Amino acid sequence: MKTRWLVSAALATGFAVAGTYSSAQSASAAAASASAEPSKAAGFTADDITAGSVQYNRSCAQCHGRNMVNSGSTSYDLRRFPVDQVDRFMLSVTKGKGSMPSFDNALTPEQIKMLWAYVGSRGGKEL
Fold first, then answer.
1. What CA–CA distances, in Å, run from 76 to 54, 105, 123?
2. What is the pLDDT of residues 100-116, one digit of tens each?
């Protein structure tokens, strides 16, 4: 009886390990292909996100925090910005919102798109 239990446990462990290995291989392959091409959901490239990061550090970090990390009490926590609301982001940046000034005359449309690539990808974490 004890031998049968040990064999069953060993088989179950073997199947679990094989399943985990297979899942890890699939996840690794998916990550590799995702890094080699733009994010299909958002259309961001690594270059867009890098340019957005540079622009963010110039124009936004003073209020919204380095790497978008802030308490969210004095300025909006951009890590929580809904990624499906690009128009809201563009409007907020160009027209201002609350205590945030308008950047319409300070940033080009291309710079604002790069900012969205950075914010919309959560600083590149969702590329």
1. 19, 21, 15
2. 999 999 999 999 999 99
